[in-house]
Amino acid sequence: MSTEQQPTPEQNPAPNAGAGRRDAPQANGIRHKGPLELRRKAARVTMSDQTLLDTKGPGQFVHTDPWRVLRIQSEFVEGFGALADLGPAVSVFGSARTLPGSLNYELAVDVGRKLAEAGLAVITGGGPGSMEAANKGAVQGNGVSVGLGIELPFEQGMNQWVDLGINFRYFFARKTMFVKYAQGFIVLPGGLGTLDELFEAMVLVQTRKVTSFPIVLIGTAFWSPMLDWIQTTLVAEGMMAEEDLDLVQVVDDPALAVELIVEGAARHRNPNGTSPSNGTNGTGNGSYGAANGPRA
């Protein structure tokens, strides 16, 4: 009897090996799954049709990533469709914890009213506090009041002063709408959510993802310590350029804040050749700094 080692089935598969096993990799070890080319262990996957038609368990597919992609797509489509004809607008940010009747609440009402009187729609997060106040001011100024809500672990709901409300599952889809359909940001005192929107806007302007996009902070007493820390720590240690501080302007007067926003929006140039009145921002070589207004 020969002692020569015989090839194993894996080394020399029979012509019909794997017959009847629809999910088995091909004999040459390569499997094509849509645009993917898979080898070795990666090729041991079931067919897409089989996964679709043989799915077990109620509601399983709605928890998969492909379904999430469709939901993300739908959020962008719904947002674009709802806001496409909005016209010139400004996104206003501030704390959801601001109490009605407080100084910051009345300040936000004044900001919303003055923006509306200047012909600008007001976009907020649609929640309570400063968001509610800015929406209220927009209604009082006979302007358009927009709320972009977000699904949160605690029920927040859309405030009563929102004329056009859209609820989002995903923060990044919501954030896109805040920037795409606004000519600038006005930022009132707020917490983590407000800071998140502020610094993201600064990054977008600093990297010129959006151009001629004014960012105005209201409340020198509130914002100055943060800007001082940026100056003495980030700039001092080379983590940030000195001129990046010019991305924001700090004022106390709501009328001046609106004036700076209007002036900044008027300088906006969309690389697609459209004017600021269409409510969109684009990339380009323009920039907006604080040289045209006060900074703390």
The first-to-last residue Cα distance is: 94 Å
Strand content: 5-15%
Q: How large is the radius of gyration?
A: 27 Å
Quote the average pLDDT: 80
Order of helices and strands: EEHHEHEHEEHEHEHEH
List the keywords.
single chain, 296 residues, alpha/beta, 7-stranded parallel sheet, 35% helix, 13% strand, globular
Structure description:
By secondary structure, the chain is of the alpha/beta class. Helix content is 35%, strand content 13%. It has helices spanning 48-53, 65-83, 103-117, 130-140, 171-180, 192-206, 220-235, 254-266; strands at residues 30-33, 36-39, 89-93, 121-124, 145-150, 164-168, 185-187, 215-218, 248-251. Helix 6 links the parallel strand 7 (185-187) and strand 8 (215-218). Helix 3 packs parallel to helix 4 (130-140) and helix 3 (103-117) packs parallel to helix 8 (254-266). The model is unreliable at 7-26 and 275-296 (pLDDT under 50).
Summarize the structure.
Helix content is 35%, strand content 13%.
Please give the structural blueprint.
Blueprint: E1 30-33, E2 36-39, H1 48-53, H2 65-83, E3 89-93, H3 103-117, E4 121-124, H4 130-140, E5 145-150, E6 164-168, H5 171-180, E7 185-187, H6 192-206, E8 215-218, H7 220-235, E9 248-251, H8 254-266
Parallel strand pairs: 3-4, 3-7, 4-5, 5-6, 7-8, 8-9
Antiparallel strand pairs: 1-2
